[in-house]
Design goal:
The chain has helices spanning 2-28, 38-45, 60-65, 68-74, 95-104, 109-168, 170-173, 175-185, 202-210, 212-220, 229-245, 251-255, 258-261, 287-300, 319-324, 326-329, 348-351, 355-360, 363-369, 378-385, 396-421, 426-462. It folds into 3 domains: 51-120, no CATH class; 166-385, no CATH class; 396-462. Helix 6 (109-168) packs antiparallel against helix 21 (396-421), helix 11 (229-245) crosses helix 20 and helix 21 (396-421) packs antiparallel against helix 22. The longest helix has 60 residues, at 109-168. By secondary structure, the chain is mainly α. The protein has 22 helices and no strands. The chain is rod-shaped and about 135 Å long.
Length: 465
């Protein structure tokens, strides 16, 4: 009995020893060379050191394209996990959880590959969405840039339309002045004075007179010559006054040069006491003698080509009126009206700066061009040269038309720019265009009424119409 027990014990010890020997032999075997997944092999051969927080995940491309030897090399314990060339991909499971599942044998290689494929699909979809979003943003930026350009262009066009409307509408507001101007520019002989070259157009005169900012804007662009509002009023008053008298202004009156107007005949001849503007150069003459000499000389100029003779009082009929005109009295007085030095025709060098000589060398345009004293009104400037009460005829119906154009243009310009900003939205575009039309109509009505009332009030206050 004891023998049997001992034998059983010995057999059991022998069996245990064989199992231990078998385990030692297995431990001494070389690493397997099968197609085991690198991460699984690494899990069985890596020491108990905790895994890295972001270990590499085997790529499906690596397991399918590389041979057994490469995968075996990748699963070697001596190779660090940070040296893997497999890209790091975020999947649903955390990297540590997936690594633990693979190590514990709870996730197959196929399952890991499926997760990788799904992760790559999500990344590709995300990249595609990002690309589409970038493309959409770029398109929106281009559309916004285009709309802004259109809005700027529309604003510029509206501004130009406003300027053009203000200029050309003056023809309807001052028909009498434009009727004279059309006849004047059709005359064969044109004025060639250089003060300023070519003179002024009636569009500039009336626009500057009525709406000075537009005139000054055109001056700044050098489209028009320099002209202030008082100078423009002076020109309009001269045209209107002499039209009423039946002795209209000609192109030579407007801007004729000294050569064209025979200005050299104004100079005095000291030996003969002649000259259209001469009162005699003798130092022994009394004031009465100088006055009589001037009357005689100016009277004689009537038949000698003096283009301005009819525009002054006839000295033979209205002696006193003629001599009291400031530009005439300065020729014989001891001093100028403004206190300056005497500029009579006996001194050729100083006489060229006199008002009378400037009237013959440059005409009315030169007088307006050189008028820079804002304290002298247009009526005072007219009274310095001529006699009369100028009355500029204004058609207030034309003023109403001009006001309607200005109002419609101004009301519509801003809304047109807004329409351009919403050009990609048909509903918005239709709505703003409708508002533009309505605003233009209302602005036109309002501008018409306001301009007509202003025209009548101005005509009463300034005696213009």
């Amino acid at each position: 009995m004891k023998s049997t027990v001992r034998t059983g014990v010995a057999e059991k010890r022998t069996t245990n020893g064989a199992e231990m020997a078998s385990r030692d032999d297995q431990a001494k075997l070389p690493p397997p060379t099968s197609s085991t997944t690198p991460s699984v092999v690494a899990a069985h051969t890596t020491p108990t050191k905790p895994p890295d927080r972001s270990p590499p995940i085997p790529s499906p491309h690596a397991s399918s394209r590389h041979g057994t030897s490469k995968r075996t090399k990748a699963s070697s314990p001596s190779m660090s996990s940070n040296q893997s060339t497999v890209p790091h991909v975020h999947v649903t499971l955390s990297d540590v959880e997936r690594h633990d599942l693979l190590r514990k044998g709870k996730m197959s290689e196929d399952k890991a590959l499926q997760l990788l494929a799904k992760a790559e699909s999500k990344n590709v979809a995300a990249d595609a969405f990002a690309a589409q979003q970038t493309k959409a943003d770029t398109r929106e930026d281009k559309l916004a840039s285009r709309n802004w350009r259109i809005a700027i262009y529309m604003s510029i066009i509206s501004f130009i339309s406003f300027i053009v409307a203000n200029i050309f509408a003056r023809r309807f507001q001052y028909p009498v002045l434009f009727e004279w101007y059309d006849k004047m520019i059709s005359q064969k002989e044109k004025g060639d004075a250089k003060y300023p070259p070519g003179g002024y157009s009636m569009y500039q005169v009336c626009t500057t007179m009525e709406f000075a900012p537009v005139g000054y804007f055109m001056n700044a662009l050098t489209v028009w010559k320099s002209l202030d509002r008082l100078g423009a009023l002076f020109l309009a008053q001269c045209v209107a006054e002499f039209n009423n008298r039946g002795i209209p202004i000609t192109a030579l009156h407007w801007n004729g040069s000294a050569r064209q107007t025979n200005a050299k005949k104004l100079y005095a001849n000291p030996t003969k006491d002649t000259g259209w503007a001469s009162g005699g150069c003798s130092g022994t003459y009394t004031l009465a003698q100088r006055e009589q000499t001037l009357i005689n000389n100016w009277g004689a100029s009537k038949n000698e080509g003096n283009i301005w003779y009819k525009h002054f009082p006839d000295p033979m009929v209205e002696r006193h009126v003629f001599l009291t005109v400031p530009v005439v009295s300065e020729l014989i007085a001891g001093s100028r009206k403004d206190g300056g030095a005497v500029q009579n025709s006996c001194n050729a060098q100083s006489f060229v700066f006199s008002d009378m000589y400037r009237l013959f060398d440059g005409g009315l345009c030169r007088i307006a061009f050189e008028h820079t004293n804002e304290t002298v009104s247009s009526s005072d400037l007219f009274a310095n040269f001529f006699v009369g009460s100028p009355n500029i005829p204004v058609d207030c119906s034309g003023a109403a038309f001009q006001g309607a154009m200005s109002g419609a243009t101004g009301a519509g310009s801003g809304l047109l720019a807004c329409a351009a900003l919403g050009a990609d939205s048909p509903a918005f575009l239709v709505g703003v265009v409708g508002m533009t039309v309505a605003g233009g109509i209302l602005g036109g009505i309002s501008g018409r009424d306001a301009a007509k009332d202003a025209c009548k009030q101005k005509a009463r206050s300034e005696n213009l119409g």
